[in-house]
Amino acid sequence: MLIFVILFTIISSIKTIEEEPCQTTFCTENKDCQHYGYCNRTKNVCCLGAYGTCTNPGSRPVRPQIECETDNDCGYTYCDQQLKVCCSEGESPDSHCNGGLTYYGIEPECVEGSCQEDAECFKGHCCPLHKVFDLTVELRALPYSLNVRCRNNETPPFRNTFCRRDTERLAILGETRVNGTKNVETERFCVSNLDCSLDSVCVFSTTIGRCLLDPFQEPRSEFDFLMDPIFITLYSVVAVSFLSVLIMKAIHKVKKNDYYDGTFSTDHNLDCKFRYPY
């Protein structure tokens, strides 16, 4: 009986190996398969197999393979704590929330009725209700923050979305700011957040990007413009120029005193005496 079980296990393993997708690339260890799964030691070729499945539904390890300890090691993707490699946030349509804005596996877990107003509980995770038409996201009442990673130097992937500076997560623009006040558009055009002031974000509502005051932040006061990077640079240039003039005048005065000493006689005629340092 024991022999039969062993034989059945071996045959099942061989069948699994034959069925799993493999390449003809020769390998001896996993690092030889940077762009395709793991090294099957039986066949010495790169295969996907179980190694190609990450924790989140529809996810696979990114290629080239990146080892990690935390999500911060992976940029846009996440660190799978079982495999200790960076995995995509979903490559299968089955892993997307309705509308394709995000992957439900990375969004907050939920039970029916526990999500915020503009979200629904989909497969145990909160998914936004926003509809997407030709890469344009419809606006709902308030801004909505996703768990999709983003960078301040990247252009938003959808119209009416932006990268939050404080969390580096993608967010959807609302009809109003989070406190109910209207969105404030600045005079600047942009491609990314780097083109905007520190309290603004880059949003493409049309084909042209504009800087908007961060919808998740409190409105700035009338004096906050003084902290704008452009104004700070201007202040610095003016201050350095002013100090340079003062220093040059001081140096000139010292040199003049070293070589010239003027006194006035009693009849108010200028009596000049030159003193040489030799």
From TrEMBL:
Instruction: Write the protein's name.
Output: Domain of unknown function DX domain-containing protein
Q: Where would one find coiled-coil regions in this protein?
A: none
- Alphabetical keyword list: Membrane, Signal, Transmembrane, Transmembrane helix
PANTHER family documented for this protein:
DOMAIN OF UNKNOWN FUNCTION DX DOMAIN-CONTAINING PROTEIN, PROTEIN CBG12671-RELATED
- The UniProt record lists the Domain of unknown function DX domain at 144-215
Q: Which organism does this sequence originate in?
A: Caenorhabditis brenneri (Nematode worm)
Regions crossing the membrane: 230-248
Q: Name one Pfam family in it.
A: DX
Q: Which residues form the signal peptide?
A: 1-16
